[in-house]
Amino acid sequence: MSCWDTIGDYALRSLGIGERLLPRSDFTLCQQFTLIGSGLIWNVYFAVLALAAGFFLATAVAVGKASANPLVRKPSEWFIFVFRGSPLFIQFFFAYFAFLSLKNAAPALDALTSAWLGALIVLFLNTAAYSGEIFYGALMSVPKGDMEAADAYGFSGWKKFRKITWPTMLRLAWPAYTNEAIFLFHSTTLVFFSGFPAWQQRGDALYYANYFADKTFNPFVPYPILAAYFILLTLVIISLFGLANRRLNRHLPQTQRARLTFRPRLIR
Amino acid sequence: MTCSDPDTLSGLSWLLCYLTTGKHLSLYWSVGTVLLLLAITAPVSLAFGFGGAVAARSRLPILSWPGKAYIAIVRGVPDIAFFLFFVIALDQAFEYVRHKVICPDWDQPIRQGSDFVVCQAAKLPLSTAPQWVHEVYGFAIAVLTFAIVFGAFAANVLFGAMRAVPRAQVETAEAYGMTPGQTFRRVVVPQMWIYALPGLSNLWMILVKATPLLFLLGIEDIVFWARELGGPKTPRFTDYPHGDWRMWYFLALLVFYLGLTRVSELALGRLTRRLSRGQATMGGEAQRKGTAPA
């Protein structure tokens, strides 16, 4: 069987398309590359949707935490505290079992107990809390002069926020937010190890890497493959966020632009 | 009140008896396991990190390349992949070395298809060893795994901190005729901590929040017991039947970790103030003038 056949059989296996049975013996390198790459679809799915949705909630939470009104500020502070103060792993477990009880009470909420929705909600809330804290810090360091200039030009309310405060906040937060995106992408590997079942062996990249390591009892092949995939996609994230960073900083002189550096992992 | 006949109990006394069963005591012990892991891993990974940072800033490429590679690789890949990898890899590495030393005349290959075969005497732990040896060995492998992964993060922080020590301090030391080694020991190392502290505090928080991953390394930790004890129990197998309480057990774990991170935050804040004393930084200057916030 050639490698092209294997790719045809397993490239979309993580979505349930193609060969039903996973390879059981005589594992080839091609199978490991294909299946682990197939699982990567789930990591990308979780990361993209959670980040896209979390971005908006994060902005709201940051503005809420900066608000003078305690009715808005306190919930924002508690939201950030709860999701940043506890391990994501425990959050997954708690959410899964909470959704399970919810399902028993109302069977219509069945979808919450499957990873594609339940885990996505947890990741969404989690990244919203971490990004919210980053955005809050950036919001606090928006230069006073910019605000005064906006006032002088007659900006106020929503328009001032939309045109002046928000873009400056994003510009200041962007390097840290890039790290958060990388970290969230790495965190998506936790999903199938934390309660949420991989239905019909449709799992993410780490799930398949772990499968091969268990079956071959040789961790030195699947995990380096997984690592290569992740380093590659991490570089993709950095370049995409770098483009956004260029756009956010385009009005600044060349020397003042914030450079994006590859420093993932140290923000949590 | 006695717990000998749970059927007659109700309300609070039932709950008290329930929460003090043997298995619950195991749960409380596993909280100790978590704290023990933190207490051992933190200094060990700091040592790994110090070694990595010193190697990375060495002038010899033989030392600086492995140091930099160590820092770079671990940071680009999800940490849980490393946890899953090192648990098997370390185990096999130890057995491989022991096999080579203890059974030199073994003629079969070690990797036979999907099997990893070493001679009986090289097995770790020995199959004749008592249960506690197996548990200690598993825990030691877990600690080593955590230390390797977090050592890389610590190395990155310390590497940056060593470079953040003001150049003038190092130049002054050189002007006084100190050798590079003396400069490093007497000037750089004592001063670098205040620059390393924000990064190390962050790292400690990550480490605290990584402890539930012990579960994936096959240790009977709090996650294991929460799943075990919270699952639905029928009257046939236990004196304390209940429904599916796993949600509440994990809620308790959530609160436990929130407490742990909150306490860490307060303690690290105190440490920052203590280390800022007498430093040529804004924090140190504010303390000197007596304007530092209490």
UniProtKB/TrEMBL annotation, chain A:
Which keywords are on file for this protein? Cell inner membrane, Cell membrane, Membrane, Transmembrane, Transmembrane helix, Transport
A GO biological process held by the record: amino acid transport
Recorded GO cellular component terms are: ATP-binding cassette (ABC) transporter complex
The keyword Disulfide bond appears for this protein: no
**Transmembrane domains' residue ranges:** 44-66, 78-99, 111-130, 181-200, 220-244
Q: Which family does it belong to?
A: Belongs to the binding-protein-dependent transport system permease family. HisMQ subfamily.
Q: Where is the ABC transmembrane type-1 domain?
A: 40-244
Q: Which CDD domains match?
A: TM_PBP2
- Repeat among the record's keywords? no
GO MF terms held by the record = transmembrane transporter activity
The subcellular localization recorded is: Cell inner membrane; Cell membrane
Instruction: Give the primary localization class.
Output: membrane
According to the UniProt entry, the coiled-coil residues are none
**Protein topology in the membrane:** Multi-pass membrane protein
- Please state what the protein is called: Histidine transport system permease protein HisM
Give the organism, scientific name. Roseivivax jejudonensis
Matching entries from Pfam families are given as: BPD_transp_1
From TrEMBL, chain B:
The gene designation is hisQ
Source organism per UniProt: Roseivivax jejudonensis
List each copy of the ABC transmembrane type-1 domain by range.
Answer: 31-268
Task: Name the keywords, alphabetized.
Answer: Membrane, Transmembrane, Transmembrane helix, Transport
Report the sequence similarity comment from the record.
Belongs to the binding-protein-dependent transport system permease family.
State the membrane topology. Answer: Multi-pass membrane protein
InterPro entries xrefs: ABC_transp_permease_HisMQ, MetI-like, MetI-like_sf
Subcellular compartments: Cell membrane
What is the protein's name according to its record? Histidine transport system permease protein HisQ
Q: Which domain of life is it from?
A: Bacteria
Annotated transmembrane regions: 27-48, 69-90, 136-159, 203-227, 247-268
A single GO BP: transmembrane transport
Record-linked Pfam families: BPD_transp_1 (PF00528)
The UniProt entry's GO CC annotations, sorted and at most eight, read: plasma membrane
